[in-house]
From TrEMBL, chains A, B, C, D, E, F:
This protein's name: Agmatinase
An annotated Gene Ontology molecular function: agmatinase activity
Provenance organism: Microbulbifer donghaiensis
Keywords: Hydrolase, Manganese, Metal-binding
Cofactor(s) this protein requires: Mn(2+)
Length: 325, 325, 325, 325, 325, 325
């Protein structure tokens, strides 16, 4: 293991000290990509948002909140820093106003480092970004397409357009299927529950072939049932985890653009992620954190904790594949 | 169906656009009452409050938050705009300082539109207002008295006086029984749990004949048990739903004057309302939203969602009665 | 005078009552345009912003804050409601994500009502909007082009592009000159002071021919000198007043995207506007209010007060032209 | 000097320690009135408010903020604790809902301790309270009526009624003249500037005979001119100082119900009070602090500092009268 | 029963009135210790904190929030004021900067009043303070050592040092065992769940002999199982209850320094405390409230409610021991 | 000029992107010290605070706010990046709880990089830190002692002890004189005005020989007079600029521990710094930013702007000394 797996030790040095990198990890540049195995990054993109905005401040807030994450998972005992080389690799150099350019900037950035085999774990940004991320992963040769997504959300995000716009945070999981990036039949959407624009609102997800667990179904199945269903749907297909924080209950994540009451509790979210260690987790993101809507800071804290959970899954997966464990 | 059932389409026009009416509905005046079936209104009254105040800013905050409500209920698939004519009818012209005048102003306003058969659904306001609302409903000939109330609250609100005052937010459900507006034996109070002024604090509710489910009982009965009990208590009597948001857990509604830990979760509240579609719902209110105590905005968002739930119940009830479904 | 000049009387009815229209005025639709003389409207556009966002929540916040504005100007004694027909005319039906469409939507909306001779006074929105507003004014035949702007701002907004984007909140006062909408030699920019991207940052304003008063110059000239300079620069040319609230000191308007310390005090801003009553004021806007950055509400309150000041100027100008005074 | 003049020493004991009394003074009860010379008290009354409410939380917030006041005035070098016996005497036992009873409760409380010759310095409460305070001072024999008031405010508070209510925060300085408590010709109102309900809005003050300095006049006169005018108006008549914090600029006191841009700066307010040491200051209040509107806490901090300034004036006046200095 | 058991009656006098003492009780000094049986006090100590700070503002915030607690427990019907003499006894005179002195100041203060047999119930303060409290209890002869603690927390607080510091909020439950103050085998730690500094992080608790219920175990056991385990672990040993509010879920207590998602719900916490009435409760504290992190005020409200619950337990225990019930 | 003088271009890349370094500069480590000329750093120390705390979150908040600083000074036209090599060098590895160790850690860190001739510009931290900074500068051979300080503050910070503590934020400018680090006769303290612990409170500054401008004197002298006095006091002695943000008016910097009304306005502070370009500025700091007290973010924004002003002065001084200009 190299210097990467050495976040600043919070038992010795003040959590408030040093520039806020993700979970206090080293900030690494392209010249260090060869040694790196997991790249934590930020994507302050919100040009896919038609509603209340502000998620471009999400990555900075999550990095700041992540100062409080320590090293070892209390349930699984995974210490990801003993299993893989991890660093914060910053953000894409991204156009700040023109959506098409920004999407390309993200795609290029992701292609570059995933092309080196580095697992991408991202703090978003609005929920458009899985699209350019998956495109980048394919462009970099990191995936061939047809991967699974484990998608947590209050909304299906499979509309065709919103406000005449084809690329936005209401459409990525349709676009990604159309482009062959995702295999919907091996993917699953969990937590859907918001009031709907129209009677056939989430029908798109079913039509595309996604596995869907609405909140009503979630409640009936129980946490164990949901975990089981996730494993069956995804199997051993490469899996990307994408969490819109509005999938969680607003009492856990009030700081988001379209909160919908009655969602998944943070404890359940943690336990779901701690119980799918068998999956071939090849990346993930946590999106739609809108810090200015949550002066308690809980939303960004929970987002940081979810990034830690995904990091644990990815690190163990790397170690397993590389025969370290 | 007329133009009323056409809230601004949030899938096309920015949620932040236009004046904030309830759930983005048309703002209608008395000249349109003849066509209207459900009147959404605000009652920024807080002259019945002896404690922390600020609920007079409630209706504006709920209207603002309601921009994010869409059209279709995710559990019941009810689209109220296809079932009834709905509009925002504004607020009463109400004295801002003299309680007795303000109560009359509310009563007159309610009598006027309920006299046309319009179902009243109100964003309060302190929890005194069910009294002038019920009075207005009777005055307008909308009810004869003796109706049922489905009352969600952390407190019984059946004291005789508070601080020597007979008309305040601690007494309406005693006054309304005394005036014959409510039949307590067909009404039910749910969620009672606050610390008590005295040993016999909520005894008034039992003495008056209310059905009561304290939080301790709620927990034992479970959600399904509570739903069943509601249906049995109310039966087919005309039912008015009144929700003091402090009935919900403060983690769902911190923005209220007298939050009491350990209450009803928003998910449960939604599911209770979605499972009593048989009731003859003739009106409702959501009270005690104190926006300045909740900078996350969750309280007003939840209140707006509850108004949507009541609207779904009322719209289906209208459609059923008018043979539309 | 018609019913329009009858905002709800705050000395009789609670300021917190009724739907939040601008300064509690009647909400009027196109069918009432013929009688109307001043149209207060909102433009929740922020697709021209490359930085911290959230100004799309500006108009709603300004309307809400404007409940506290009364009828008579304390310095000039102008009561605009006795001088002109005034109403809130809502917002454009505006695409929420595609900039080019939204710009057209604004332009069409403005053309429609200014085509009837109605003076436009707008609560923005990011500071791109003077461009589509001026375009709409020309399209509607309300202006011929070549008008004066009295422009208050910490930044010149005369760059050619920002982040490769030609239409954004850093460029409108270059675009509008290029399109012949503004005569820069009869226009004036006041309050410029932010740190600069480059040495020649605000040079564009000088090159285009604008009159410019930087904050350093402002301080030397004093308020009276500035007022005199404004009058000389603009003379009797039709004048549009555009205020980016970051022109004011951040202690007055912290709720904005790019606050720059050391700006114009609100008292000075008020007194400047109260001392240019001779100008031919034909419209105006107050932009860049970002409510979530100011939990004290002062920014939106000040913006509402500035809209009142512009309304006083416009109403007196109408009355003068129509020979009412 | 007794134990009273011993606030907790902030140079030794944590400012955050102990129950929050005013400026960390001893909490004294009626049994100690004989020894006391200045009584600091709170009046959490807001039943005279027709607009945005919440000032009943004012006294608690001011007491909390006052932990940071030390002992010596930096300009005048007055240490009030060396000049007079000072304590916090709590609040009146006050009805929380019925205005008429609450007014009597305040009057009785004030009569009791001013009857012992104790100078009343109060943290309000809405600006109705000078009326019951002056009534109490007369009832207790502390004044005969016809005193001077030095009144700082953005509004004149001399309307006859507001919303049909004769006793409210818009009328006390008319009522008190009618009742002979105040001699308006020896009193002065400073800082008036809010937009007005009607053209003749503040005319009442002139008609009643008050000396008035509007904000426009204030600016012309300058601070020194204002100080001079105060001294001439009041002379050696007993003087009560009443400060509505909205008299200050909202950038100093955003936390109030009806903030009006362009007011008196806190530095000027301090220096005015530090330059009228000759006046026969017999009491005072600081009203209309609405803490929930100011999360920075500056409003309550400034209110606490103003209470300190009034205390310095009163203490020196006592010492002068009793020949201690 | 004496005058002590008479908190201000919130059904008669405004909750916002009077200086904020704990639950509106009388403020008592040492001269009244002989009559007192329960002393509510504050300990604004945070010199044991290596992370985000601000808990020194905790006691003031809890006292302020406690205005809303009434007299009777809604589940157990305990009215502590009928069972024991209760007062707020203020805070220790405590050095504000030098840890060693402050610890001694706390110890001395506790020794003084517990030496009179008064039950200590404290609003903290960082979670170092159980150490000086237990020391003070022993010094005052109130305990002999070897007592039980019922310890609610997300962290074990049994490290040997943190940042080289032996006395801090990460170590008190090791130090107290070393000093013989606590019998770990009769004590229990509940709610442990935070990410860990190292693999053997909480091993210290097991090694010392504590009973431990991690959050994973808590979930498996259920609330009834946990209650049963508490009773078995503690038995009839004298029991001190210490609650770090981060033991609760951050959705209940966001205002704390090291919130960890997925904790104990407030309802469960209340019901646990209401179901251990048999225990010999001899004191308690509620620590780590950091009010500035929770603008909703829920954290301090919940802390105040927990102090009420502990007070009920202690009062009933006193009454039982003294044969009053 | 090297790569250091290349902060991320905010006219091209979103201000919200990348890890928050000071003014978006490169983050440099010790291996790059040889090329560096100005080191921007953070010092999240607050172990010298006896009052309201939280300034350890200051550096992170200032870095975050500094994203909005551009490259060129609008008054002086200085572009520091064309004059000197500038980078963010992070924070010291600093003990988080033990004051004596933390002071040594700071001293060692400063000695290391100033030993290379790098100008230190620091975002604090409480106002104790000038002491270890000056010690480090001497230890590193960067100064010999006897330097000038330009000290902006509401308090003199020249007490001998506070709460028995000799090293705290009330004493550094006494300690530093005692240690020969500062020549008080060539130093100046500006803005003093807080209420005082005792009559002789700030006498220490005079006794030590400091030049002092109280706020009362400041007002009489005017800005130009103050600038002149600064130049005369300091002359050509090496000058360290230390700004306690409470020296500014609380309306500019509410987010600090001990705000005192009536201070220096941010505009004046900027213009003072822009008019002392002749001084031999060898370093500086901006201290006492307590972000949680200012949800508007203005305090941290102003602190970031002041760091920019000091950077301009230092860069020009370097360029002058090295003959670049």
């Amino acid at each position: 293991m190299s210097e990467f797996n050495q976040p600043i030790d919070s038992s010795r040095f003040s959590r408030e000290s040093q520039v806020a990198t993700m979970m206090r990890n080293v900030l690494a540049g392209p010249e260090q990509y060869d040694e790196l195995e997991i790249g934590l990054w930020g994507c302050p993109f919100d040009l896919g948002l038609g509603a209340r905005n502000g998620v471009r401040m999400g990555p900075a807030a999550i990095r700041e909140a992540s100062r409080y994450i320590r090293k070892v998972n209390p349930t699984t005992a995974i210490n990801p820093y003993k299993l893989a080389n991890i660093a914060d690799i910053g953000d894409p150099e991204m156009n700040m106003m023109i959506q098409s350019q920004a999407l390309e900037d993200i795609e290029r950035f992701v292609a570059e480092f995933t092309g080196k085999g580095i697992v991408p774990i991202c703090a978003g940004g609005d929920h458009t970004i899985p699209l350019p991320i998956l495109r980048g992963m394919k462009k970099g040769g990191y995936i061939d397409g047809g991967i699974s997504v484990l998608h947590i959300d209050a909304h299906a995000d499979t509309l065709d357009t919103l406000g005449d716009e084809k690329i936005c945070n209401a459409t990525p999981f349709r676009r990604a299927v159309e482009e062959g990036l995702i295999d919907p039949t091996k993917s699953i959407q969990i937590g859907l529950r918001g009031t709907r624009f129209a009677e056939d609102d989430i029908q798109g997800s079913y039509d595309l072939g996604y596995n869907v667990i609405t909140m009503d179904e979630y409640e009936e199945m129980g946490r164990a049932g949901v975990i089981d269903r996730i494993k069956r749907a995804i199997g051993d297909n490469p899996c990307y985890i994408t969490i819109d924080v509005d999938g969680l209950d607003p009492i856990c994540c009030p700081g988001t653009g379209a909160p919908e009451p009655g969602g998944i509790m943070m404890r359940d979210m943690q336990m779901i992620l701690r119980n799918i260690r068998q999956l071939d987790v090849i990346g993930g993101d946590v999106c739609e954190v809108m810090p200015h809507r949550d002066p308690t800071g809980m939303t960004q804290l929970n987002a940081a904790n979810l990034i830690f959970e995904i990091t644990c899954l990815a690190a163990e997966n790397i170690a397993r594949k590389k025969g370290r464990i």
